[in-house]
Design goal:
239 residues; mainly alpha; 9 helices; elongated; HEPN_Cthe2314; Cthe-2314-like HEPN domain-containing protein
């Protein structure tokens, strides 16, 4: 959608994104087949189908946010906020909007995945923590010593992207709970010298961290749904 609005060609899925989406689409087909066979009187399969479709949409929105932020970043040339033209300030504002949208969505998608995993594998994480995150669900896997193959794989993916996730989490927390993350950067610089110009943050570094967050989400989704699909094909579906 955003690519069309930006005058770009529609996205051709490939790599990690393609694998994540195709794996979830396979899950949706498995659920639909089960609904057709058994009519799903408890609506458990239908619920999982809706949640999985939601994850596909959320992943798509995350990727689009990263792409749009990267698109608008190309128009930002100045190294200092005070040196920007009016047009450049507008492009920078658009970059900031989609960049923020991106790092917030990284954790939103992960938490939605955590809800699916908790329900799918009967982890009952909510008994220990009513409002749990994806990372709480990972700890619950290890605590219950269940589905250890999947739990180990998801933990390895988390550790692989630990540095970028920590940066994105701090920015998410600042944006959601305290103050705008880019305003924090400006405030810190103002403290260093009240008369100095405000240097622009490292936009390329920020986009690289956001892309790592996107990759981590793709790998986590792929691992989770590959595991579920394989398990269902082997043992049958028992939500």
């Amino acid at each position: 959608m955003l690519r069309t609005l930006l005058g770009e060609m529609p996205r051709q899925n490939n790599g990690l994104l393609e694998d994540a989406i195709e794996t979830m689409v396979e899950t949706i087909h498995l659920l639909q087949n089960e609904i057709e066979k058994n009519e799903d009187p408890s609506h458990d399969y239908r619920k999982l189908e809706i949640w999985t479709r939601g994850l596909v949409s959320s992943l798509d929105e995350l990727e689009q946010s990263w792409y749009a932020a990267s698109f608008f970043r190309q128009s930002v040339k100045a190294g200092y906020v005070d040196d920007m033209t009016i047009e450049e300030q507008a492009e920078y504002a658009r970059y900031v909007y989609f960049y923020k949208n991106g790092f917030i969505r990284v954790f939103s998608v992960l938490d939605k995945l955590g809800t699916v995993l908790n329900d799918l594998f009967d982890l009952n994480t909510q008994k220990n923590k009513p409002h749990f995150s994806y990372f709480t669900v990972l700890r619950q896997f290890h605590y219950m010593k269940t589905h250890e193959g999947l739990a180990g794989q998801l933990s390895e993916i988390k550790d692989e992207y630990k540095s970028a996730l920590n940066v994105l989490r701090k920015r998410r927390n600042a944006e959601v709970h305290y103050m705008n993350s880019e305003m924090q950067d400006d405030l810190w610089q103002r403290h260093q010298g009240l008369k100095d110009k405000v240097e622009l943050e490292d936009l390329d570094q920020h986009l690289s961290e956001l892309k790592q967050g996107l990759d981590m989400v793709c790998k986590s989704l792929s691992a989770s749904f590959h595991y579920a699909n394989k398990l269902w094909k082997k043992e049958g579906m028992h939500p």
